[in-house]
Amino acid sequence: MSEMLYYMRWFFSCKLLGRRKPLQSVIFITDLCNLRCQHCNVVKEGPAARTKTLEQIRDELQYCYDHGSRMVDFEGGEPHLWKDASDAARASTADGSPADINTLVELAAQLGFFSSTVTTNAQLPITANSDLIWISIDGSEATHDEQRGAGSYQRALANIDKCQHPNLNVNMTITNRNWRDFHSVANLVREHPHLNRMSFSFYVPYDSRELLVPLQLRSQIIDTALQLKREGYPLMNSAAALDLLRDPARFVNRRQCWISNFILADGSRLATCPGELAGVCADCGFGMAAEEVLLWSLHPQMVKAGLSVRQPTRPNN
Ligand SMILES: C[S@@+](CC[C@H](N)C(=O)[O-])C[C@H]1O[C@@H](n2cnc3c(N)ncnc32)[C@H](O)[C@@H]1O
Ligand code: SF4
Questions:
Q1: Which of 26, 51, 78 to mutate to test the pocket of ligand 2 (most atoms within 8 A of CB)?
Q2: What CATH number should be reported for the domain holding residue 56?
Q3: pTM to 2 decimals?
Q4: Has residue 161 been placed in a domain?
Q5: Burial of 42 per CB tally in 10 Å (0-12, 13-18, 19+)
Q6: What digits encode the pLDDT tens for the residues 127-149?
Q7: In a domain? residue 205
Q8: Ligand nearest 199 Cα, by number?
Q9: Which domain holds residue 291?
């Protein structure tokens, strides 16, 4: 069945028959990471840090596919660090080398996923050949390094400069420390020939409220974002979702976060966002949560943004 037909069938079977089938899956493949970002609630150290085997990820992909999902986002930790050097995994690669992120991208395509995405801190050469890559850039050099560690900005930029992937995009996580750099990240994306689009989310306070962006400031940043969109900056967040994101109270009661299912690094299979379990929905800042509310009402701006995200060309605002 064609991709578009599948999406239409998915929408109507969920809307009319009340089914709750995920369309997108977020699979955390490892806790291991080469950075220790101030705002990160994911990375674990020592014995608590887990890495999955190829076999486990194969089972998880199959589970997601069987439940209806057709898009997968490989998350970590740092996905480029993931490897499985076992004999079983080596037997799955063409040249007997350890399985890596591209083994997973290929596997997802073989199973029938329409697309795969990798989110990376770009500290290693960006070798993933997923349909879409999100690179986390959290400010201009000084601010990014403060949030993500010394030297991390220059390493990310050097790897972006070297990468020829046609669909490289930037995601910024906004905290109350880096928000002043929003415009400069937008400028980087607009000016760098290898970058297509930018999206952003606000810090979600899983562990501490220290970096939380107060609501009034959120609204101010969103006003800047809307202005930049009007000026033609390649900002991915739809205007309607940005408006919802001003205050989580506007959308969390209407949330449709089941549209993405999550499989955590410890193997827990969640039918919705881990934020719900953590009890942080009242402070949600995830752009995707607002977009999913709009998708559920087939809002034209969201549909346009969703359809364009895999095209390796800049969006036409
Ligand atoms: C967990 S990281 C994993 C992929 C990769 N290591 C990276 O940094 O892009 C994925 C994204 O989640 C964001 N993130 C981490 N903790 C967050 C939080 N508490 N609230 C909002 N976003 C968060 C990161 O900034 C990053 O853009
Ligand atoms: S690079 Fe990504 S996974 Fe690693 S600590 Fe930073 S946000 Fe977390």
A1: 78
A2: 3.20.20.70
A3: 0.95
A4: yes
A5: middle
A6: 999 999 999 999 999 999 999 99
A7: yes
A8: 1
A9: 22-308
